Amino acid sequence: MLKKEKKDKTAKKTASEKKTDKKICFDNDLYLKLQSENIHKRIKKFHNKLYLEFGGKIFDDLHAARVLPGFDPNIKIKLLQKMKDKAEIIFCISSNDIEKNKIRADLGISYDNEVLRLVDNMRSLGLYVSAFIITLYKGQPSATKFGKKLEQRGERVYFHHYTKGYPNEVDVIVSDEGYGANPFVETTRPLVVVTAPGPSSGKLATCLSQLYHEYKRGVKAGYAKFETFPVWNLPLKHPVNIAYEAATADLQDVNQIDPFHFNTYGKLAVNYNRDIAVFPVLQNILTKITKKEVYKSPTDMGVNMIADAIIDDKLAQIAAKKEILRRYYRAECDYKKGQATYETLERNKALVAEVKGTDKLFPVIDIAKKTSKESKFPCIALELPDGQIVTGKTKTVVSAAAAVVLNALRTLAGLGDDFDIITDDILLPIVDYRTKILKSNSSILTIDDVMVALSICTAKNEKAKRAMAEIPNLKGCDAHCTYILSSSEEQTLKKMGINITCEPVFLNSNLFES
Known about the structure:
alpha/beta; Cytidine Deaminase, domain 2; 7-stranded parallel β-sheet; globular
């Protein structure tokens, strides 16, 4: 009896218990220390008043986490928390983005709603968001409405117009007709973080406008950029830097050697084309405002200690190559859906070739294709943390996404082929609801349907509870789908932390995604 019991316990040992620790290549504590130290130095350099342009994602920087395994996707917000007594935050949002209802692709929400989400999250962590600036304003109705909405909630809201004379007429730009025409935002702390929900939101113009007003008031404030990518002191063709080009292929960003930095210091430094191209103009504007030469190169403006915290360069290179391949698959699907240009697709394809990336980087790709071909069903393959690969197929009841997640959770929980974690008396009423009440043209249950069913089953089913508890262990797993996932299922997989790639093939001939 005791031997049998011991054998059963061994059999029930979960895959998540068997897995080895995930390899990491990044030291978050070191990065936090170095980055904060350098920001403090920059504040002191500018007489205890610094406007810090904060690009990229403050929360959930999943690109950095994928490219640098071990990177905490929320390390930036932790850095701001560490400096919260000295920092205040100004949010910029472009009137054009509000008017066009621009959507943040990874979350599926509009830029104006993203601003509200970010501010709520920051304030819940004790950070001080002091003002909102609606940039590039020329009376856009939606921007006006958004501003009034914020004002009615007691927020400080400012409207900045297009800068007269920009970019060539420096004497006009740095005058009361240019930056002086914008209202000044009163700030009270040494560090003013200027951030936004996305690129081209007017962060730089806001910083320079504030600088102009500060100097008129006798405050010798400074400007700097919080940088993540490209990494200035990694080689130009390092996969981590090329992964940044892949991520911004639609913006046509190209990494280059900073010629200003090399000419001044004789050292190679990497920056990107837009910063290098605009630097002469920016240098002239800063000199005009401050009456002295502040920076000798665009690289000088940045605060970026990423390279110093990379502890395994080989692993970082492999991870970056994987991300470049992911971006290519994404571009293929977006082009197929009419959401990306041919130029963006070709750019991503060229970057894959540049790093010699192949499907062999992801074992799940070949297995998904092979399983789908043999079974004649759409398929998703997912690699578990211990290297084991599970599959899921779209058949008569559940989608491939739902099937592969269920199979993964069963495996991680050590349940083997136990299929009774969700029973028909839970699933079938959901099918009836979809087809008879919602009038859906598909009886296939999505991953959201199935996960709700699984959560219901946890009330009385211990196996379901064990499976549900394994969801966090899906974070960071790679998966590949043999068709283009619906946006809702793709978002759910991403929220679970699964890195999903898809073949550029539609599941069916329907033009409308229900």
